[in-house]
Design brief:
- The structure holds 2 protein chains of 2 kinds.
- By secondary structure, chain A is α/β, with parallel strands linked by helices.
- Chain A has 15 helices and 18 strands.
- Helices cover 31% and strands 16% of the residues of chain A.
- In chain A, the strands form 5 sheets. Chain A has a 5-stranded parallel β-sheet with strand order 16-15-14-17-18.
- In chain A, 61% of the residues are buried.
- Chain B is α/β, with parallel strands linked by helices.
- Chain B folds into 2 domains: 6-183, Aconitase, domain 4; 184-216, no CATH class.
- The chains are: A alpha/beta, B alpha/beta.
- The interface between A and B is large, with 84 and 60 residues.
- Bound molecules: iron/sulfur cluster.
- Residues 63, 107-109, 128, 130, 346-347, 408, 411-412, 429-430 of chain A line the site of iron/sulfur cluster.
- Residues 63, 107-109, 128, 130, 346-347, 408, 411-412, 429-430 of chain A line the site of iron/sulfur cluster (SF4).
């Protein structure tokens, strides 16, 4: 029987197979940030343990960092302490670190691929659930908690039980103007936020193959929102092209050998999946989430659901609760929902292609007078630099957007970028949980194009109708 | 890690599906660089009328009377009964820390999110999966009966109800063993240090680029 992509990468990293079904799995890459690492370093210190392979790690502060002027450091004392703790820990152990002043600094899941530090066939971990992003490279990548951050630092391994194989196949062509974000939101709407629990999802099909690496990362990023710890996409020319010449990618003779090896990183034709879901790409429309779970999505042309239509009492209660929290009436057309703020950023949609797409919508228009704040937060210093070279910053600023420094920002509001109670936001991030972007804040998940269109009109609208 | 063998405790119900880690411990508390002090902020946005922050005076807080766990009958609960997909969202281990430091030793639900489920075991918090209809029934029993307690027996892999009914649950044998013995995961893995080193040597020799360092 053939192997799936997941099987192949998993099997190549087994250090030891336990009799009880668990495996000791070798970890190639460990990416680290300030929030989930301090207690892990402290644990190492208390036990008198060393870091097993320092060169497997790259670290950067991202969750807590200010996105406004940083020349005088971080004003919030608690955030400043968390960031300086990361710097001290990295210095003590010799861990490579991109500091705040380094233009390579940015969101962990953006900078790893950008540096070529996540390669096909690798196992990669990070103390953050959206590590699934990196599976776009045919790597096995997943988020871990702080105990496992410490475990991987001390042992270079994870002790795990293998998940099941799930295939989500998106065949056909998406309609013009439908993005990677719409594809993944649609998938989550179909399979639900627990649809991939206990599985590793491989995304395949012509609509996935036709995506750029940026788009593939957007899809894998939200595998976790479908309940899967890891999402993966087979290696092809697009993957290889993207990696060529990146700082951590192999070069010289190694490059040729690596590329040969990477070309085997796809599921075999006779591989068997435990679960297969087929999605027709042609049916996907631009998506907008209306509730407090990423599965609560509808097309932008649709309406907020009516709990009265839901037969299942638990689901009906969840819809009612979400509508109350979101301050929405049943059956409201999505296009009639007015917004207060716009956030273009996060590890889902802050790469250069996302900013280009949003800028195309914004170009020559102005942020609507009713919108209190529209901000663009590039995923890394290098994305920011590239965007400025292309003049995207001017397009955004002329339109009335704020152009910020890289970081997680209003995706989770650990810094000062937050929604106030009751504020409604069109956001390109990945989670619309209660309070996610600020206590009492209301998040609608959308693509960069849809966020940009909402910014310039003040309400949700199909960006394609603005052309 | 503290051993987990048998415990009996008061049950508190949280009858909602998809309780996410942002709800269990909101982001502002993740700024702490410590491993303790999260219990007072567990479910902060649901539990209190005011907005909490690190360093807030606990005596100044206004509990939300509408939140289930604030009812006097559930004070001192050490078993949480919850809905489907409990713990979805982020990888923050602060979520099991907060639950454990609040006083919970076990969470019973029809299903859990993977990362959260994993993180629980590392912190002596036992996540127990029971069938959805059984959990439904437990919710009804908790509501009907004041002071409703359950006994969790990890050795026998059973939850015992006040009426003497034994509900079996599955648990990964390795995790069960480590919890029963209170073993330290890292110490256990390091017993394999030679095997890891040998694997690493061959692995990196075959694919040397895996260990490449970038200039600068
Ligand atoms: S951008 Fe948001 S989802 Fe991504 S790593 Fe940062 S906080 Fe997490």
């Amino acid at each position: 029987m053939g192997k799936t992509l997941y099987d192949k990468v998993w099997d190549a990293h087994i250090v030891k197979q336990g009799e009880d079904g668990s495996s000791l799995l070798y970890i190639d890459r460990h990416i680290m940030h300030e929030v989930t690492s301090p207690q892990a370093f402290e644990g190492l210190k208390l036990a008198g343990r060393k870091v097993w392979r320092v060169s497997s790690i790259i670290a950067t502060p991202d969750h807590n960092v200010p996105t406004t002027d940083r020349s005088s450091g971080i004003a919030d004392e608690i955030s400043a302490l968390q960031v300086s703790t990361l710097l001290d820990n990295c210095e003590t152990h010799g861990v490579p670190l991109f500091r705040l002043e380094d233009k390579r600094q940015g969101i962990v899941h953006v900078i790893g691929p950008e540096q070529g530090a996540v390669l096909p066939g690798m196992t990669a971990v990070c103390g953050d659930s959206h590590t699934s992003t990196l599976g776009a490279f045919g790597a096995l990548a997943f988020g871990i908690g702080t105990s496992d951050v410490e475990h991987v630092m001390a042992t270079q391994c994870m002790l795990m039980t293998k998940a099941r194989n799930m295939l989500v196949r998106v065949d056909g062509s998406v309609p013009a103007g439908v993005t990677a974000k719409d594809i993944i939101l649609h998938i989550i709407g179909v399979i639900g936020t627990a649809g991939g629990t206990g599985h590793t999802i491989e995304f395949s099909g012509s609509a996935i193959r036709n995506l750029s690496m940026e788009g593939r990362m957007t899809v894998c990023n939200m595998a976790i929102e479908a309940g899967a710890r890891a999402g993966m996409i087979a290696v092809d020319e697009t993957t290889i092209e993207y990696l060529k010449g990146r700082p951590y990618a192999p070069d010289g003779a190694d490059w040729e050998i690596a590329v040969e090896a990477w070309k085997t990183l796809h599921s075999d034709a006779d591989a068997v999946f435990d679960r297969v879901v087929d999605i027709d790409a042609a049916q996907i429309e631009p998506q907008v989430s209306w509730g407090t779970s990423p599965e609560m999505v509808v097309p932008v042309s649709g309406r907020v659901p009516d709990p009265a239509d839901e037969a299942d009492p638990a689901r009906r209660a969840a819809i009612e609760r979400a509508l109350t929290y979101m301050g929405l009436d049943a059956r409201t057309p999505i296009e009639q929902i007015a917004i207060d703020k716009v956030f273009i950023g996060s590890c889902t949609n802050s790469r250069i292609e996302d900013l280009r797409a949003a800028a195309r919508v914004v170009d020559g228009r102005r942020v609507a007078a009713t919108v209190k704040l529209a901000m663009v937060v590039p995923g890394s210093g290098l994305v920011k630099e590239q965007a400025e070279r292309e003049g995207l910053d001017r397009i955004f600023k002329t339109a009335g957007f704020e152009w910020r420094e890289p970081g997680c920002s209003m995706c989770l509001g650990m810094n000062n970028d937050r929604l106030a109670e009751g504020e409604r936001c069109a956001s390109t991030s990945n989670r619309n949980f209660e309070g996610r972007q600020g206590a009492g804040g209301r998040t609608h998940l959308v693509s960069p194009e849809t966020a940009a269109a909402a910014a310039v009109t003040g309400h949700f609208i199909d960006a394609r109708t603005l052309a | 890690m503290e051993k987990f063998t048998v415990m009996t405790g008061l049950v508190a119900p949280l009858a909602r599906d998809n309780v996410d880690t942002d709800a269990i411990i909101p982001k502002q508390f993740l700024k702490s660089i410590h491993r303790t002090g999260f219990g007072q902020f567990c479910f902060d946005e649901w539990r209190f009328m005011d907005r909490g922050y690190l360093g807030i005076d606990p005596a100044s807080r206004k509990p939300n009377p509408a939140f289930e766990l604030n009812q006097a009958r559930y004070h001192g609960a050490s078993i949480l009964l919850a809905g489907k997909n409990f713990g979805c969202g982020s990888s923050r281990e602060h979520a099991p820390w907060a639950l454990e430091q609040y006083g919970f030793r076990a969470v019973i639900a029809p299903s859990f999110a993977d990362i959260f489920f994993n993180n629980c075991f590392k912190n002596g918090l036992l996540p127990i999966v029971l069938p959805a209809d059984v959990v439904e029934r437990l919710f009804a029993e908790v509501a009907a009966q004041g002071g409703y307690c359950l006994t969790v027996d990890l050795e026998k892999q059973q939850v015992l109800t006040p009426s003497g009914e034994a509900l079996s649950f599955a648990v990964d044998p390795l995790r069960r063993h480590r919890l029963l013995e209170g073993l330290d995961d890292i110490g256990e893995t390091l017993l394999e240090a030679d095997a890891i080193a040998a694997f690493e040597k061959a692995h990196l020799a075959k694919s040397p680029w895996l260990n490449k360092q970038a200039a600068g």
